[in-house]
Structures are given as C-alpha cells and as structure tokens.
Design goal:
It comes from Methanofollis fontis. It catalyses: ATP + protein L-histidine = ADP + protein N-phospho-L-histidine. By secondary structure, the chain is an alpha+beta fold. Among the domains are: about 80 residues; about 100 residues; about 90 residues; about 150 residues, Histidine kinase-like ATPase, C-terminal domain (Heat Shock Protein 90), CATH 3.30.565.10. The protein is about 50% helix and about 20% strand. The strands form 4 sheets. Strands 6-5-9-8-7 form a 5-stranded antiparallel beta sheet, sandwiched between helices. The relative contact order is 0.06.
Length: about 600
Amino acid sequence: MPSAPHNTRKYRPFLHTAMISAFLIISITIGSLSALSYLQVKDEISGAYTDVMDQTDGMIREAMVLVMGGWPSIDEEMYADPTAIIERHIINASGSSKPDTRTLEQQLGELYGSSAEISVDVVDVIDLPDAAKFGRVWPEWQESSTNDGEISRSAYILMPGGMYLLSIQIRLPEDEKIPALYQYYTVRRAQEINPMLESVRVFDSDGHFVMDFTEPRNSSDETIPPTVLEEILITGSDTGTADPATHTTTRYLMIDAGPESREPWIVAVTYNLQKQYEEINAVLMLNLATCLLGIFFGAFVILGLLRYIGRPINAIVDDVEIIARGDLDHRIRETDGLEFSRLEQSINLMVRHLKETIERLKESEETVRIYSGNLEGMVEKRTEQLQLANEEVNLYIDILLHDINNANTMTLAYLELLKEDLSGEQRQYAEHALQGAKKSVAIIKNVGTIRKTYENETALRPIRLDPVIREEIARRPDITIHYEGTGAVVLADDLLGEVFANLIINSRNHGGAETEVWIRVRKEEDGIEVIVEDNGPGIPDTLKPKVFERFTRGQSRSPGTGLGLHICRSLVTWYGGAIRAEDRLAGHPEGGASIRFTLNDLPP
C-alpha cells in the first residue's frame, strides 16, 4: 500500500494544549479570587485603622476645646485629673517617713497652671479623732464653687503606712484655661488606646508651631506646609497628608472653641501606620502563598487527569499508525470510557469498510488491466489501419494534384493560344474559360498548401522577413504594392511566403485591378507585427469574426475560393502568432481592409 505523503508541519500535542489552557484558566481564576480577597481584607484593615484614628481625633479635639474654652461647668470628667501624679507620689513615699509635699505641689501646679492655688498638707493620724473613716481606697474629690466663679477641689488621702493623712486643696480662678499638661495626659491616654498615635502638635492660624502635646518640652520652629494651611483656611475643614516612605499620615484638625475664643488653632495629629502596612503585607503574602499553592495543586490535578485521559488516546493513535502502515487486520485496543469505546468501534468499522473497498478496487484493477490490454491492441490495430488509409488518401491526392496540374497546364496553354486567334464575343468566351482554368490552378495550389500545413512536421527556424516579402511582391507586378523594407528575423518555415501571397491575392480579388496594397512591419513587445492593408471595399463588421474560417467569402462576387485567409490563419498559428481583421480607417469598413498578424522574432 503506498505510504501517505510526509507532512513537515509541526503540531502541538492536544493534551499539551489542553493542559496549558486548563492551567491558565485555573491560574486566572485562583489569582482573581486571591486578588479580590486581598483587596477586601485590605479595605477592612484600612477601615478599622481609619475608625481608630477618627476616635482618637475626637478625643484630641475635645481636649483642645477645653484648652481654648476653659472650665465650662463642675463636671469631674472634664477636669484635669491629678490621680496619676498623686498615685505616683504615694507609691514613691516611705511608709514611716513624712512625705515631701513640695514635689507634689510643683507637679500639681504644672498640671493646673500658675494661677491655681494648691495646698498640700500632711496631718498625723493620731491628731485626728476620726481618722478611722479614711480608708486606703481611692479618695473622692469634693468640688465647690463661689459666687465669683472660683472652683475648689479637695480630697484626703491616707498614706500607705497609715501614719499620715494627705490633705490636698486646689482652687482655680474664674475663666482659667486648662494648661498644656492636661492635654499631655489626654494624649498619653489616647496613645494607650491607639498605639499608632505618634505626635500631637498645635499650630496657630498662621501655621506657626505652638506646643507639642506628646513632648511638652519641644520648642521646634516647625510650620505647616503653605499648601496645607491654605486648604484648611479656605475650606474651613480638616485635611491630611501621607508619607509613604515612613508609613506615616498626618491629620490637620481645625479647632474652633466658639465665637468668644481667640483665632482657631490647627492640631497636627501624626499616626505611624507601619503596623497597618505590615498587616496588609502579611495578608498579601498569605494570599500569594494560597494562590501559588492553589495553582500548584490545580496543576497537579490537571496533570493527573490529562495523563489519565491521554493514555487511551495514545493507545488509539498507536493502533491507527499500525493500520496506516498497511496492517488492516490490526484492531483498535479496548480502553475505559464510553467515548473512547465508541471511537474504537467507529475506527474498527471504518478499517473494515476500507479493507473491503481495497479488495473491490483490486478486483476492478484486474478487470481494467485486462480491458486495457485488449484496448491497446485494438488501438494499435486501428491506428495501423488509419495510417494505411491516410497513406492511400495521400497517394490519391498526389495523383490527382499531379494529373490535374498537368491538365490545367495544357488547358491554360491552349486557351492562351486560342485567345490570340479569336476576336469579339468568341474572344470573351475564351477569356472566361482562361479565368476558370486559372481558378482551378489556384484551388489545386491551396489544397496542396493546406495539406502541407497539416502534415508539416518540420521545426521552425530563423527566417529573414524582408526577402520573403520582396519575393512575393515580385511575383505580382500587376498589383501596386507599397513596402519600405525591414530587418526583422522571425521563427517560421518555407511556407511563410504563402501568407503574404494569399493576402495580396485576396486584396486583388476583392478590390479589382485598381487596388493598392501597403505592407508594414513593426516591432512590438510580444514580437513582430505585420500589417497588410488595401483600399478595397473592406470587410464588414459582421464578417470579421469568421472571415478566417474555411470557405468564407465576402459579399462581392470575387473569384476567390474561400481558403486563402484560412490558410493564412493556419500558418500563423503554427508559427506561434495570432491574426485578426480590422479596418484600414478605424470605424470605416468601406475604407479598406487591414489584416494584422504577429510572429515570434529573433534579434537581427
């Protein structure tokens, strides 16, 4: 069996393509889900940190309102709380020694400001008959106010050793502003709630630094950036900036305590969001790890499935290759799976039908071989018979041409002699008889030319066109022919002169004795073009398409046989050219005929 043509095209295995496609789908799906999960968690973390910063901003804003507006009412929660200072002082005091009150007074003065009157006394417990009522629980502050607006706070605190009682009295004048140390402790509490809080700095409405609540001793000459200050003052609202390099964000809060307060202050609250970025990066790494693990696991599962699917496909391919090499008795192996089983059955059925078809073709081939042998013998026999018949016909034609030519020659000679001896009407009869004999000679000549045309087996050779044309012109001295000569060399044979002879005679037959003929030769891109024109009656447009067919004659009663132009077409076609009929004057058939034909040329 002939082998199939080798295909050099390289194909990618289907399983590889399926594996790559499935891997891409799983990768894109898992990657998209991981990205969505990461973005969602990132938004949640950012939202949580934003809420904490908003709450912290609220605490600091309330503390600043107190600083700018003073003590609004007797409300324990809004007063500066000395608890931390007193507690630290008591813890550091010795149990048996009398505590130092000067340090405590100094620290409380820093808390409540220089205008506050602070009195700290130490009383011996034995000097107080009701000392037993003072426990070691944290004391309750007693508040009172006078008509002139003064506020007083007092408390009694039992020392750890139980020997001394601490008496604290604090008086605040009217409209006294809360000192900066109050905000310092407020900020400290805010930092305990929100560790991200890094600094709280206060600026005036011109953007100049006033104080730092996280570091009261800070005396920086820092100013708010002009663009930020302009935005705050124009919009009258809070704004913020971020520094990605240090993972910090600064919120600028505009504090206005009311119409009676001085110009608004601007508080710059800076948060360190390093922990937020670390949490977001941790979530990102976790999602990346999950994504890669999912892709790896998906690729592992896909690889296993494709190997499971590919095993029966490879088995079928191997069996098909065995069958393709000519073993039609080989059967496809059975594998698992309904689809593969149906495919195996279909291939086995196809191979069985193919085997039956090949057997029938072999039988038909044998039959055709027998018929072909018989046909070849019949064709050879018939060809031999046709060859003999052709030779016999040629013999008869040669005899006829020879004998008829001899008879025509004698007839022409006698008619010429008779014509000379006759006169009048009898001379005209002789002239008509002479023309008929000449026509018979022309017919015999054309028949001979046609025979040579069909039987011509000679090879074409280079022929100089000018001598051929001039020889034919010399044979017709009775016709006016205009020709300027040419140096063209064409591929033709000895019958080329017949083309010009028939065209010249055709012009004379249809145009009469006064007809003039023009012969021109010119070089064209596809060869040599020869133009033979006359001033005769021309060729009608309806006759041009069939004028080169056999026995086609014009409308005039010319003595032609209808074979001249057919001979011209046959010879030109044999030479590899083409011939056509046109008008000498374009659009005027009555102005004369123009026969144009082409010949293959050679360099001169």
